Amino acid sequence: MILTIALREFKSLFLSPLAWSILAVVQLILGFLFLSRLEAFQLYQPQLMAMDSAPGLTEIVLPDLLGNAAVILLLVVPLLTMRLVAEERRNRTLALLFSAPLSMTEIVLGKYLGILLFLLVLLGMIALMPLSLLFGASLDLGLMASGFLGLALLLAGFAAVGLFMSTLTQYTTVAAISSFGALLLFWILDWSGQGTSGGNWLAYLSLFNHYKPFLEGVFDSADAAYHLLLIVTFLVLSIRRLDADRLGG
């Protein structure tokens, strides 16, 4: 049943112009940034060739591309997750889900997996940009794998937070804004903690600090565990929220 719900959510995304618009706009913006970075590499290539241990094409182009992708998708993912439960509540179809022979865990995981499938499509389209360079250059595939793994974990966390925010309201706009606010807070959390006694704790909770090592080709199990813990925490909160709705409704 989880897969059935996931495929329903995935298909419903492509029945609206929102998903197509997001795919087009994200590719357009990131394509422009990718080509700009590639042009900068070509401009400075003579100087790089004269340097010892100069950074390669992958090191110059990929981290910048994936860093920009993370910021853009921080804005985009709330638009995708805002309707997951809020629209069901607004259209009064949530009661139908509650009456079906499904557990709240199956409902939440199904909706979550549907969004993840869409984000994987988006991730694959982004990956085509650096992979296209294989036709004329050699790439650091290890760095690329690390960067895209980090972005995949980051997007999975974005989706989990957005899903939880969507369970709190029947208004999709409120769900989108609250999701964006929560994600932005997690992204810049360490900024407010700099120079304070609690700065280390705030820095540890920052999404950016656990994403940056992946862009540098460093896989740390602690960073992966942070993302997985964030995902599980917000999925559990979503399940408990829907359980409370069912018992109260």
General description of the model:
This protein is mainly alpha-helical. Helix content is 79%, strand content 0%. The relative contact order is 0.14. The model has no long low-confidence stretch (mean pLDDT 86).
Keywords:
single chain, 249 residues, elongated, mainly alpha
Number of strands: 0
Mean pLDDT: 86
Strand content: under 5%
Radius of gyration: 20 Å
How would a textbook summarize the main sheet? none
Residues in helices, as a percent range: over 70%
Shape: elongated
Order of helices and strands: HHHHHHHHHHH
Helix segment tally: 11
Structural class, from helix and strand content? mainly alpha
Taking pLDDT < 50 over at least 5 consecutive residues as the criterion, the unreliable ranges are none
How far apart are the first and last residues' alpha carbons, in Å? Answer: 23 Å
